[in-house]
Amino acid sequence: DGVIQSSGPNPNHEDYRVIGPVKLARVTGLKLEVIPHASHTGGGLSRGKSGEFILTDIKVQVRRTGSSQLRDILVASAVADASAEQKGAREYGDIKGVLDDDPRNGWTTKGLDQKVPRTGVFALAEPLLLEADEELVFEMRHRSTLGDANIGRFRVSLTDQAGATVREVAVAPMEELAAVVRSNQSGGDHFNLNPKLRARLFEQFLADHAPYQTAKAALDRASRQLTEVKAAAQKLNVMVLAERKEPRTTHILQRGVWDKPGDKVERGVPAAISAWPADEAKTRLGLARWLTSRDHPLTARVTVNNLWAMLFGAGLVRTPEDFGLQGERPTYPELLDWLAVEFMESGWDVKHVIELIATSATYRQSSVASPALLARDPDNRLLVRGSRFRLPAWMLRDSALRSGGLLNPALGGPPVKPYQPEGVWEEIFMGRFKYEPSEGAAQHRRSLYAFWRRSIAPTFLFDSAQRRVCEVRTPRTNTPLQALTLLNDATFLESSRALAADALRSAVKPEDRLAEIYRRILSRGPSASEAAVLKREFDRALTHYRAQTADAGKLISGAQVRPDPKANPAEIAAYTVVASLVFNLDEAITHE
Question: How is 158-190 classified by DSSP, letter by letter?
Answer without folding.
Answer: EE---THHHH--SPPHHHHHHHHHHHTTTTT-G
